[in-house]
Amino acid sequence: MLASVLLLGLFVCFLLLQLQPRRPKNFPPGPPCLPVLGTLLHLNLENPLKDFQRLRQSYGNVYSLFFGLKPAVVISGFKTIKEAIVIKAVDFAGRPQDLFPNYVTQRNGVILADYGSVWRDHRRFALMTMRNFGLGKKSMEERIHEEIQCTVDTLVKSLGATLSPQFMFHNAASNIICKVVFGTRYEYDDEMIKIIVKCFTDLTKMANGLWAMLYNSIPLIRPLPLPFNKAFKDMEMYLGLAAGLVNEHKKTRVPGEPRDFVDCYLDELDQQGEGSSFSEEKLLMHTFDLYVAGTDTTSNTLLTGFLYLMNYPHIQERCQQEIDQVLEGKDKVTFDDRHNMPYMQAVIHEVQRIANTVPLSVFHCTTKDTELMGYSIPKGTMVIQNLTSVLNEEGQWKFPHEFNPENFLNDKGEFVKPEAFMPFSAGPRMCLGEGLARMELFLIMVTLLRKFNFIWPEDAGKPDFTPVYGITSTPKPYTMKVQLRSKQ
Ligand code: HEM
Ligand SMILES: *[C@@H]1O[C@H](CO)[C@@H](O)[C@H](O)[C@H]1NC(C)=O
Fold this sequence. Notes:
iron, membrane, 3-stranded antiparallel beta sheet, oxidoreductase activity, acting on paired donors, with incorporation or reduction of molecular oxygen, reduced flavin or flavoprotein as one donor, and incorporation of one atom of oxygen, alpha+beta, iron ion binding, globular
């Protein structure tokens, strides 16, 4: 109650103090702004999809919004997005630095790091490490296959029954990252996983909501004991746990023989001299970043994949025919086998196109005064890429609005990847887990389709393909039935 009164007071003060935000000269157009609130009243925060659609229709491929006093530009369409993040790459490669999640992550980590040397060093290090050779004797493929075996066991236990796959796929994606980063898998009810999931859920729920909006717009309220403190408490708890794991690594590691990402980072720390941008503190947040970036994205894509494969059984069957033919007599699929599986490749890419897993990408920020499509965009402007608008853009795809692997096949049945395939975004900020994600999607989908038939339960009614809105979009919860395939 006291907090609300205080807040109201501050709010009124600000209304009086602050000038109304104004669009700079030649800035992209957008809806009218109010003092303090900017264009917030034009958006329904719970589900702004309809509002976005209206705004894009009225103002086109480059339009502006104000989050409080902060300007943001929303960019849509292949041509516009490419001009920004690929052609004018560096101009658009920053991240906003004064938002709620920046404070929660204490400006460490790689996802939200601004364009500069700390980001570059950490990104390069992560990319290097995740390539096969960086992680000691066991290859990335082996690690993924170990986890797939657990998924297969789960499915075998559910033969004949109906199963909710949400949990199973989340668990698989989560464990693959944990194995890469910490060298271990965790049971789903492990304390570590519970905390990390809670931390992430609180943070993402809040980052979208009213409290984060107020946090961003009114710096004066930041020290107050308001609901956003929960996210800070969660983060502290995660950092404590991660520090414990890193200390264990320090006790058991053999320098130069890394077992996982943490060991690699500790090796790197040994070698870095003064003035290095690597530190233990940064390592802790880096592990958090890899986990949050790699878990829901991958598992939501898998969920979309199986939702469509069950409801397009002829496509599922054609995948299985190709898999049987190419893998005949082989024990396990390898990532290299993809070169002989154009149809399977086309299906996986089509799943990613339709899944549209990170619809607005991660927000960018301009690093200098720049121009886009003839508009002037000053340094420090938030830039929101509308990836959806590229993944279903007319003119870029043979069948933009339907699930159809032909989008990735030419007349000869060969696999082709149109340039507008951007679920991982593009340019210098492009997803750094792309290689790992593609390997996971391929190995998991091929292994499971080889062994099982996936069937939409008769009593499940008509499938609802409309995704649930969020930072990552995901299908509505559904159930599946599995059968062992007779060949095999
Ligand atoms: C299907 C799965 C995935 C999708 C669709 C996806 C998509 C994306 C997108 C759209 C971005 C934002 C790029 C930009 O700002 O322009 C991103 C960034 C990022 N992703 Fe992924 N991602 C996936 C899986 C992964 C995995 C498995 C990892 C980790 C190992 C990962 C790690 C990251 C990181 C660290 C960034 C930040 C890169 C930077 O700011 O430089 N992602 N991802
Ligand atoms: C992105 O583009 C799609 C159309 O392809 C539109 O429906 C959606 O509202 C746009 N989102 C934003 C944030 O402008």
